[in-house]
Design brief:
Number of helices: 3
Order of helices and strands: HHH
Structural class: mainly alpha
Radius of gyration: 38 Å
Largest sheet: none
Number of strands: 0
Length: 129
């Protein structure tokens, strides 16, 4: 299977082809219209590449702005959460309404001691003797 050629490689091949055909227009009058069409496509692709570069630069700038706004939003959200906790108290169940988890006291575990198992191979009669 042939490997895919890159756009640059394709365009270099087109440039060589159209330049060679232009040098030999006398021998190839029947292909002149197609050569001109290919040359026009080359110019259009060059313009599109320029536009793509501009759009990529714009995209990077917009991405930077989004990142800055997200950081600013995080600071504001943190400030607001702190204000809610100050207003309602850290243990208030009202915080749940705002998507915050209130501080809750730990529930006391049962005071039942876990049973101690005898080591394997020993029987209750072994300890009696």
């Amino acid at each position: 299977m042939a490997r895919a050629r890159r756009h640059g490689e394709i365009r270099i091949g087109w440039r060589k082809l159209t330049a060679s055909m232009e040098a030999n227009t006398g021998d190839l009058p029947h292909l002149e219209a197609h050569r001109v069409a290919l040359k026009d496509l080359q110019e259009e692709i060059s313009a599109l590449n320029g536009q793509q570069s501009q759009l990529q630069a714009q995209k990077q700038e917009v991405s930077k702005q989004i990142k800055e706004r997200l950081a600013e939003g995080q600071r504001l959200a943190t400030f607001l959460r702190a204000g809610l906790k100050q207003r309602y108290g850290h243990q208030s169940e009202k915080l749940v309404e705002f998507g915050l988890q209130p501080l809750r006291k730990r529930s006391r575990g049962s005071k039942v001691q876990p049973e101690v198992e005898a080591p394997e191979g020993s029987t209750p009669t072994d300890s009696e003797s």
